[in-house]
Design brief:
four-stranded antiparallel β-sheet; 293 residues
Length: 293
């Protein structure tokens, strides 16, 4: 009876150790996959930020509707304009009233605001050099009284977009190294409970390759399960927050997501195989006396 209980306890302990490593792998791969999605969408993110840079064109007070229509038509046909929105005096006053929380027109007795056009640029033109050229072009329109945009913010955004790209790449490499070490230690701990089995196999003349084979096979299986679990979690996260990611991450880009999901699976198998190979080799080289420490 005691003989039967002992193997069952060992099997349960081995299963728990592999379950722990599988959960660790899935969490690690989930974070790597998430970072991969961000990295592969970095250009789209930069484009999204730049396309929210724009001009406010203050129109002349005596402008006619036909002049407004002509201006909008000219702006929308310009190669640097993504979209142009006309805001009349009443709408501008209503927006400012909501921001201030009080009706300033009632206090002043009239609406001092002028009609305007909000212009958002295409990402390729949202650079400090291009903005100066575009500003000069816009001032040539007779309907426009004033052209304004925030020069400092544009400069800061362009500088930070480049910095963020470098930081993400550095963080991705650092994270991969840390996670590889973490998974390696987790797998090494799970194999530690079977070190005496490894030693017994060596005593009966088993080759290193023969000893490694079942451990690697088992580890790859759990690595694959962990990778699939990570992909499921990643898919659920993306779908749950699809509306929040609009414009930043395109859920319709199956190439990017297919590449990320495939990479997660490959990494799960590769890291599990490599970590198990190194861990088993370590215990193969240990002498019998060293197994107790």
């Amino acid at each position: 009876m005691a003989g039967k209980t002992q193997p069952q306890k060992l099997k349960k302990r081995i299963f728990k150790s592999y379950l722990t490593s599988t959960i660790s792998i899935s969490m690690v791969l989930f974070l790597i996959g998430l970072l991969g999605v961000v990295l592969l969408n970095a250009e789209r993110l930069a484009k999204y930020v730049r396309e929210n840079i724009g001009f406010t064109l203050v129109l002349k007070d005596d402008i006619q509707q036909t002049d407004i229509d002509n201006l909008l038509a000219s702006l929308k046909s310009a190669n640097f304009v993504k979209e142009a929105e006309y805001i009349d005096k009443a709408t501008a006053a209503e927006r400012l009233k909501n921001e201030l929380g009080e009706d300033f027109t009632g206090f002043l007795g009239y609406n001092p605001l002028l009609s305007s056009v909000d212009v958002k640029l295409k990402a390729d033109f949202a650079t400090p050099e291009q903005l100066v050229v575009i500003e000069r072009k816009l001032t040539e329109f007779p309907q426009i009284k004033e052209v304004s945009y925030q020069h400092d913010i544009v400069k800061i955004i362009n500088e930070n977009v480049q910095k963020i790209g470098f930081i993400l790449v550095f963080f991705a490499v650092l994270l991969l190294v840390i996670f590889f070490a973490l998974i390696s230690n987790t797998i090494r701990i799970s194999i530690y409970s079977q070190r005496f089995i490894i030693n017994t196999m060596l005593l009966v003349g088993a080759t290193d390759r023969f000893i490694r084979a079942p451990f690697i096979k088992q580890s790859i299986k759990y690595g694959l399960i962990g990778a699939l679990a990570a992909n499921v979690l990643l898919f659920i996260l993306m779908m749950s927050y699809a509306s929040e990611f609009t414009g930043i991450i395109s859920l319709d880009d199956f190439t990017i997501f297919g590449f990320v999901f495939a990479s997660v699976i490959v990494l799960g198998i590769l890291i599990s195989w490599c970590s198990t190979y190194l861990a088993v080799n370590k215990f193969i080289r240990l002498k019998f006396d060293e197994l107790f420490y």
